[in-house]
Amino acid sequence: MVEEKVKSIIDSLSHAATDNFADVICLSLAKATHADYVFIAELDEQLTRATSISLAAHGEIQENISYLLANSPCEHVGQGSVCSYSENCQQAFPEDQLLFDMNISGYVGVPLRNEAGQTTGILVALFEQAIFAEQDVRALFLLFSGMIKKEMEKQALISELNIRNEIIEESQEAIIVCDKNVEIISVNKAFTKISGYTFKEVKGKNPKFLGSGLTDKHFYGDMWQAIHETGSWSGEIWNKKKTGEIFPEWLSISTICDENNEVSYYVAFFFDISKRKASESKIYKQANFDLLTGLANRFLFTEQVALAVNNAISGHKKSAILHMDLDLFKEINDVYGHDFGDQLLIQAAERLQSYIKSTDCVARISGDGFAILLNDISNEYIVNAIVKRILAAFSGAFIIGDISIQCTLSIGITVFQEHEQVSDIMKRAETAMYHAKDSGRNSYCYFSQKMQDTALRKLHLKNQLSHAIENRQLNVVYQPIISIKDKRVNKFEALVRWNNQGEWVSPEEFIQIAEEFSLIKELGQLVLSQACLVLKQLKQQGFNDVVFNINRSVFEIPLNQSENKQWLNTIEHFGLQPSDICFELTESALAPDKRNNEILFNLLRESGCTIALDDFGTGYSSLAYVRRIPIDYIKIDRSFITDMSTNEDDNILVSTIIAMSKALGKKVVAEGVETKEQLDLLSALSCDYIQGYLFSKPLPAEQLANYLSQFNFDDY
């Protein structure tokens, strides 16, 4: 009898009109056993609930059900036991309401186990009348339980593979799969979208046909060496689309090996980074070049001077800096307007460029200030000749529109050869320039010993600053940082101020002195300690969600990793959490030669501190390091905010910085916000935080609690 039923079930499976195995087997088992209900159900991980994947009732497939196993015969089956009742099943499980609702008398249930022997499903037959041949039903269900479980595993695997294939196909990254001979055997839709090639066009080809021709063979040699040695490679590369367009992409290649560790497939993922490169180029240009004249800006010029210093040390070569200022430019601007002044600056830049060679550098370093770096100077006669030609060129009139105007130059010169600080060299040239101006303009002057007043003042301030730090005579004030989304004060930036015997010394001046004379660590520790104390007092007053931003100079970062916990120790000393402090760093801290920086930043982040990149766009602008260093916030320098409402270039740059920051998962703080118009523009660009005089000047510690209590975003 059982054999006939087995044959009948197998015959039903073989001739089924549907591919749904579960439905067919449930119907076949129900028919063979005369069961009123047969169903296959999957169990949850806790083995507390069963959910059917197929339910046959009275010869038809019904909607699936889900029910709790507790106090039911299925609970025993879920625990791995075969359970059967030829009749009176309701009486055996009086709390199983489902048995009563379905009027069930007979029950047969067998577990469905995986390869590890764990019960993951159940096969159940329900009978409204007593079972005529219970043993036959049990035998039949046990016989087919293995087949059913295998089919369930097969369907699950097929479903998983379909999902994976769909993910690959719908991925925004282009994917190429090659065989061991590096011949293409599969691509996804993103590949066709990016490259323009269909699978039919590339099937069986080596991907090298996509090459742009811009990459040399050594690059590819190194790439394949890395793949063979490590099994993977990733990097930036230029390739060519079907249209012939050459584009940059980020490419990752991995190998898939067989059980003998032999390469079976190569899988490549790539995506077009043209937009990112364009944005990076735009930001680099903004950070390194003057948008008006196209000349190098102060930052790039300083880098070039640093290179010249290094070359002078190694090659015993002299270089010279010419620091130049347009005479009476402010008066010309006031009379003819800023547009006229801009055109004058452009023409002045063009004249200066015509007097330098390719190894030199000309830059606009301030509003009407220019500088030239002359390299490989054999003697001062060469410098004099160039300076005289420049002065002669500026003796000629500038023609702007229908206006002819004279505008001369004052030039300060310093020649350097031995190892010196770049800032000292630049300062000497600037000092000489001011001396030339004081001497009647339209002239030049070399730096001399008579110009040491500035240096003497610097030394004088250094001694007084050291005394002020030792006796804690500097003040820390706090400028609010406001969340646009939350409309509340989330943070304060701690700023140090120095009243030196009645004279307010500019932070730019005394911080530079502190850095130059190795006082910056003591100054930084003073600021951190005072800020932590004030923050602790605020928290004691109930302001628990406030974070203090503490500026750190690149010169405060320890060279020795053993000192990396000093800042965290100070925070802990005041009973604060690392998450209460955000450290602000300038872009110079990201430079790749600062090897301990990244280790320190990771330690701070892992401990709970956040990190902000201050004055973004004015320093070491490398998206590669911004992406790699663990930065939480990017602060846009006030110089970009000031004119963004009137200068389209600044508006575009700010928009690009915000978009880039969002793409990298960073939040954005705009500094120097002074007008409601700037606030509205930044809000529209999805900027996260605002800092500036629109909301408040820096406040003394005793005013913070009142400011927090009284603050109302809508008042501004």
Automatic annotation (TrEMBL):
<dbReference type="InterPro" id="IPR043128">
    <property type="entry name" value="Rev_trsase/Diguanyl_cyclase"/>
</dbReference>
<dbReference type="InterPro" id="IPR000014">
    <property type="entry name" value="PAS"/>
</dbReference>
<feature type="domain" description="PAS">
    <location>
        <begin position="166"/>
        <end position="206"/>
    </location>
</feature>
<protein>
    <submittedName>
        <fullName>EAL domain-containing protein</fullName>
    </submittedName>
</protein>
<dbReference type="InterPro" id="IPR000160">
    <property type="entry name" value="GGDEF_dom"/>
</dbReference>
<feature type="domain" description="EAL">
    <location>
        <begin position="458"/>
        <end position="712"/>
    </location>
</feature>
<dbReference type="InterPro" id="IPR000700">
    <property type="entry name" value="PAS-assoc_C"/>
</dbReference>
<dbReference type="InterPro" id="IPR052155">
    <property type="entry name" value="Biofilm_reg_signaling"/>
</dbReference>
<dbReference type="InterPro" id="IPR001610">
    <property type="entry name" value="PAC"/>
</dbReference>
<dbReference type="InterPro" id="IPR035919">
    <property type="entry name" value="EAL_sf"/>
</dbReference>
<dbReference type="InterPro" id="IPR035965">
    <property type="entry name" value="PAS-like_dom_sf"/>
</dbReference>
<feature type="domain" description="GGDEF">
    <location>
        <begin position="317"/>
        <end position="449"/>
    </location>
</feature>
<dbReference type="Pfam" id="PF00563">
    <property type="entry name" value="EAL"/>
</dbReference>
<dbReference type="InterPro" id="IPR029787">
    <property type="entry name" value="Nucleotide_cyclase"/>
</dbReference>
<dbReference type="Pfam" id="PF00990">
    <property type="entry name" value="GGDEF"/>
</dbReference>
<dbReference type="Pfam" id="PF13426">
    <property type="entry name" value="PAS_9"/>
</dbReference>
<feature type="domain" description="PAC">
    <location>
        <begin position="233"/>
        <end position="285"/>
    </location>
</feature>
<dbReference type="InterPro" id="IPR001633">
    <property type="entry name" value="EAL_dom"/>
</dbReference>
